[in-house]
Specification:
The protein is an alpha+beta fold and 345 residues long. The strands form three sheets. The protein has a five-stranded mixed beta sheet. The chain has a four-stranded antiparallel beta sheet with strand order 9-12-10-11. A hairpin with a 4-residue loop joins strand 5 and strand 6. The chain is globular.
Length: 345
């Protein structure tokens, strides 16, 4: 493998944006989520490093965060402010002349012709950090690799606001004895399945014959898992505009919906909103997925695939209601989500 790939991840991005506006909160545990009221239902969007030390993390109920860190400052989500900050970050990255592949508000892969010719990519990475800091007053961490996979994993070892290099030379030294879920693309469910086969670490997965994994994961996924464990990834960094694969909305109810008629009404309303937004963007919807979270915290999802012709708002609504009919439980509901999945363009 030749050349370098950089992966940039903004440090505690949402919390950091809030701290720019409220510098007096620096050093205190900070939690951003919902409308900022931890007595209400909602989830944590982000937590500062000080709050994370108490076990607070993204996706956690605000009430749980408040119990774990009662002295934390809670703030409401301000999406517009984060989008503006994100735009400034990416503008600074593109001004370097690098090919920038966004992965969200606060994350991207980078490649640059000049970077491929250097033996010391850390110098280039530090320059990127300096430029982002100068443009936004925000810090970032950068991972360096010979593949996107290596660079992505490396970033976690560089946090906060550091630089870390992970290549074939130190891959097993750094990752060999770690659990398989350290690999980008392997989640808890896959990791558990691997453990059931006696494969617990990255080194063990790398040494496993893909044929032995095929009966559990299939003939396509098994070689891919082996490739991940060996640090392989030949996908290029592309500067093409990121296109969302789905659009949706979720709503957490402050009082459980005990009447299923109310649940149906809420799903219908959300499906209409999601459908209008998707069609206004000119996107072709191939599937509608409904998520229901029962009290206290059991989550279930069902989807409905639409026929081949372009869907209209009525078809999207009908698909959502059909998906809802697949839910067998009639327990009180605390959260509903509706998501439209787009056809590939």
């Amino acid at each position: 493998m030749a050349g370098w790939v950089l992966h940039l991840d903004m440090d505690q991005f949402i919390a950091a944006v809030e701290l720019l506006r409220r510098p007096e909160l620096r050093g205190r545990p900070l939690v951003v989520g919902g409308d900022g009221d931890p007595t209400k239902r909602g989830v944590v969007s982000t937590a500062s490093y000080e709050a994370r030390a108490f076990g607070v993390h993204s996706g956690q109920p605000l009430r749980t965060a408040a119990r774990r860190c009662p002295d934390a400052v809670f703030l409401p989500v301000d999406r517009e402010a984060y989008e503006q900050a994100s735009a400034s970050v990416f503008a600074a990255l593109r001004e370097t002349g690098a090919v920038v592949e966004p992965l969200g508000w606060d994350e991207a892969f980078l490649s640059h012709a000049a970077l491929q010719r250097v033996r010391d990519p850390e110098v280039f990475a530090r320059e990127i950090q300096r430029r982002v800091r100068l443009a936004t007053r925000l810090d970032c961490s950068i991972g360096i690799g010979q593949t996107k996979l290596q660079a992505k994993i490396a970033t976690g070892f560089g946090k906060p606001h550091g630089v870390f290099r992970l290549t074939a030379a130190n891959w097993f030294t750094v990752l060999g004895d770690r659990g398989t879920d350290v690999l980008w693309g392997i989640g808890p469910k896959t990791s558990r399945k691997l453990a059931e086969l006696g494969v617990h670490t990255v080194r063990e997965l790398a040494a496993t014959n893909p044929a032995e994994l095929a009966s559990t994961f299939g003939p396509a996924t098994a070689p891919w898992l082996w490739l991940l464990a060996n640090g392989g990834d030949d996908s290029p960094v592309t500067g093409e505009a990121w296109v969302s694969r789905s659009a949706g909305q979720e709503h957490t109810f402050q009082q459980d919906l005990a009447d299923w008629a109310d649940v149906r009404e809420a799903v219908a309303r959300m499906a209409a909103d999601v459908g209008r937004a998707a069609l206004a963007d000119g996107r072709d919807v191939k599937q509608v997925v409904v998520k229901v979270r029962y009290a206290p915290f059991l989550t279930e999802t069902h989807g409905r695939t639409l026929p081949g012709q372009p869907a209209d708002e009525a078809a999207i609504m009908e698909a959502a209601m059909t998906a809802l009919d697949r839910f067998q439980r009639r327990r009180p509901v605390r959260l509903i989500g509706v998501r439209a999945v787009f056809r590939a363009e």
